[in-house]
Amino acid sequence: MRRPRGPAQRRPAQSGPAQRRPPEPRGHWFLVAIAALLMSGALLLNAYAHNVVGETRPPPADYGDSAELERIRSGGPLVNVSESRPLSARPKPRTVALTFDDGPDPRWTPRLLDLLREHHAKATFFVLGAHVAEHPELARRLVAEGHEIGNHTYTHADLGAVPAWRARVEMSLTQKTLAAAAGIHTRLARMPYSSAPGAVGYGQLAAMRLLGDEGYLVTFTDVDTGDWSRPPVDEMVLASLARTVEGEGAVIMFHDSGGDRTRTLAAVDRLLTRLEKKGYTATTLTDAVGLPTAHTAAAPGERVLGTVLSFAQRASFALVEALGWFLAVAGALTLLRSALFAALAWAHARRTRRRPANTGVPPWAVPPPVSVIVPAYNEEVGIEATVRSLVRTDYPGRVEVVVVDDGSTDGTGPIAASLGLPGVRVIRQPNAGKPAALTTGIAHAAHDVLVMVDGDTVFEPPTIGHLVRPLADRTVGAVSGNTKVGNRRGLIGRWQHIEYVVGFNLDRRAFDLLGCMATVPGAIGAFRREAVASAGGVSADTLAEDTDLTMAICRRGWRVVYEERARAWTEAPASLSQLWRQRYRWCYGTLQAIWKHRGAIVERRPFGRRCLGYLALFQVILPLLAPVVDVMAMYGLLVGDPLPVVAVWAGFVALQALTGWYALRLDGERASVLWALPLQQFVYRQLMYLVVIQSVATAVLGARLRWHTVRREGTFALAGQAVAIPAAGRPAGRRRRAVRGANAPRRRSRP
């Protein structure tokens, strides 16, 4: 059976026992699973780490009343809750502790540090571990320039709202990143969305107790400038100076990350200038309250763990960035390919319409005799319909049908021989595979125009005439016909029908104009004997003998063209398991053919660069990376705003539907089948790219693909009845003849 497109869509050699091979190893799926696990872990880490938005709202209202809360509310901004009673401290008179939350930020933190150095001021930075992991050099600079670092959690989690285990993880991860970046731990902590001690309630008190048990001093503020909401600069400066009227000390909170901090820098500059005039000292928090530094040396083990964490986070961020670029490039290439191939298909259709209408007489001086070769292995359910469709051709020249029974273990040979049809010969040989069967058929063929047909395929009466017509041009060595899916009623059949039509009517038309036809399908193709001989005959080097032969013919300088009017109806796999086996063989065989003919890339003719380049990019590399699209889509849905993801998905489905509609229109097919296209994105597409992944892994690991047989359903074998072409495939306004069954009256054809 054959296909319209894709590396996972190439017909391998038919085979029976003679070509059975040991099962391929399953180790590649283990490698794929490991890669998927690592990728998922990286995305989860990146999603967790980049859930960092900083202050975006006022502190939540917190309620409660107790003696403990009252001591905290009436105390200073630095609180120790590790003892039986909360202890607090205030900055010394004429001392200001400037604190900055949510950093470090690669844009704003360096500018702020430069500003502090100009004013000879020190400050305390309550950092987010995720930011430290991405910019460890900033943490090192903070310490080197004498500033103090506090723990503001890893991802700006609201410690009053998360479980205790999450709070411990948040604080511990930040300590590890500080250990890796600057070799320190810190005893200072500030809870996100906290403010002055007077706003503490039961919710924050529970988080404070947890932090106290971990050895932290919890820091609040005397002045929350609210710079995250971008108030006027003067407003922030006046609020900060309000505590200095009586010469009191104060803890003032700004932010050095989380958005545009231009106003924050301006406010800090003005504030420090005013404080200098008032004789105030701007220093670190512990120095302001008269305590030893909050920094302690980190243990070597903590430094190692922090280094691993930081590397993993940066690697995950780099991966997401790379995947984002890949999606952008892949999307652009897909759009460009769709536009180019639609334009080429339109040009090909115009050229085809300018040809003389089919009158039943080919443009030969004398219609050449044709040998039709049918290699068959265990095709008893369909061989009769195939042979009868070939005999009842409209072609006016001599036609012989050579059926090569390749060691079938069923009734394929006896059924073909018992038909007693004129011009039909049955040759039997021990099982040797499809390439050998074709070679036998060519050797016994009496004529120089060869038509190759699979044993599960039915021709329309005009098909041979249409197929042979382009060979009147002496430069044409082979002609690809138009394969149609016969069993298209089920969902799987409809998906394959859409795939076949789009592939043949866009890709093959474009390949015809570009001179880079990759495959004349085994289901329907016409060859000049001279062209086959120049290519060295049908090779058994690959499982895609049709692709191998087509590439070899093109490399010898012959033209290979597409004739859309030459129709053949085939039986497609009816189950996902059968479809998997078929496409796995096709894809593996195509990879073999690409590797075998890789030398064509450097040849003078452009065939190799066009054909192999296209196959490698669009039918190997992009499908190989296609899971990234699904993974990133799920990532976007779960982590970010789902609307852009849905919009992009809908846009690409709409593009596919438009392309499919045009292809169906060119082929005279009904567009109503496109209702199944969106569903194709959730099963069929994934199966196709998994086939590519397995095929590439099998090839890279050097395994030999075993043979999988595809079970035939006998779509065209209806004893005693006319075997009709599916109505859904008939072009509107045109009548198609039926392929008659065993008891239908025979129309005489020329022997």
List keywords for this structure.
751 residues, alpha/beta, 24 helices, 46% helix, elongated
Write the layout of secondary structure elements.
Elements: H1 27-49, H2 67-73, E1 78-80, E2 87-89, E3 95-103, H3 108-118, E4 124-127, H4 129-134, H5 136-144, E5 148-151, H6 164-182, E6 184-186, E7 188-189, H7 202-213, E8 217-219, E9 223-224, H8 233-241, E10 250-255, H9 262-278, E11 281-283, H10 285-289, E12 295-297, H11 300-353, E13 370-376, H12 383-391, E14 399-406, H13 412-418, E15 424-429, H14 434-444, E16 449-452, E17 457-459, H15 463-468, E18 476-485, H16 491-514, E19 525-528, H17 529-534, H18 545-555, E20 559-570, H19 576-596, H20 607-624, H21 626-639, H22 642-666, H23 677-680, H24 684-700
Parallel strand pairs: 3-4, 3-10, 3-11, 4-5, 7-8, 9-10, 13-14, 13-16, 14-15, 18-20
Antiparallel strand pairs: 1-2, 1-8, 6-12, 16-19, 17-20, 18-19
Helix pairs in contact: 1-11, 3-9, 5-6, 6-11, 8-9, 11-16, 11-22, 16-22, 18-19, 19-24, 20-24, 21-22
Task: Write a brief structural summary.
It contains 24 helices and 20 strands. With 751 residues, the chain is of the alpha/beta class.
Mean pLDDT value: 85
SS field, number of helical segments: 24
Count of individual beta strands: 20
CA-based gyration radius? 37 Å
Description:
By secondary structure, the chain is α/β, with parallel strands linked by helices. The chain has an 8-stranded mixed beta sheet, with helices on both faces. Strands 3, 4, 5, 9, 10 and 11 form a 6-stranded parallel beta sheet that branches.
